[in-house]
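Dear colleague,

Thank you for sharing your sequence with our group. We've completed the structure prediction you requested, and as agreed, I am returning the results in plain text so they can be pasted directly into your records. Please verify that the sequence below matches your submission; if there's any discrepancy, let me know and we will rerun it promptly.
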Amino acid sequence: MLETPDLRRTAEPRRRSGLRRLTRSTSGVVGLGLTAVVVVVAVVAPWLSPHPPFSSVAPSLEPPSSAHLMGTDALGRDVLSGVLLGARTSLLVAVGVGLLAALIGISVGLLSGYTAGRIDDVMMRATEFVQVLPRFFLAVVVFALFGPGIDRLIVVLGLTSWAVLARVVRSETLSLRQRGFVLAARALGARWPRILLRELLPAVLPSTLTFVGLIMAQAILLEASLGFLGLGDPNAMTWGFLAGQAQRYLRVAWWLSVFPGVAIMIAVLGINQLGDGLTEALGRRSSSRPRA
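Please find the predicted structure tokens below.
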């Protein structure tokens, strides 16, 4: 009598080995640490924030002190509270844009590369059209027509950020569609959705993680740029809004621009490094695992 393997017992060593490979990479350790800091701060920001972010709680332009660790702005608002709560907005934008762009880009890339022919031509022409769209100015136009909002920003950036990812996934799929494991799946009668999800998707995933990280980092920078120009959501505290409020006081209040800028740098650097570490870890795993 044949014994069926316990999937829970085999999955646990795989997770441990994947985490071990990630921690062996310098970029993985740095990215994991910085991203973890941003995520933890975003989750516990309402409890860590000493004051409401839009309330005047002290004299204006007060330098960092024991009472206000990051000082106050021109209206007497606590900068530390704004930086902490701004992490939630930036993380929400990054995750939302990354998920939407990854869903569209990976789907289009897999289907285009696997089917080829006319479907491939139509999808690539649509991808090229999306690729040349100016995302920043398109977001400005959408805000002008429908009003600013985090949900609108996520939709606009997500629908215009998947083109490069789709082309990368398509090129990977074209090189894999005639490999032995795909031909074997076809010979066994597997339908194309199963081949895309079970055979091709795990193979192209390592090369896509870096681009997803870049998309998320770019989303944070674009949101900060819009907030810096005063085009963000006025009801949401963001790092770009804090940096925009600081541009008039760069010579007299250095802390207004330094602390939001450092927060943006940590978030962008952490996501980029984490993407590189995951790509290296998954690439090492896929290269060391032979396929029949």
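Summary note from our side: Confidence is low (pLDDT under 50) at residues 1-15, 285-292.

Kind regards,
the structure core
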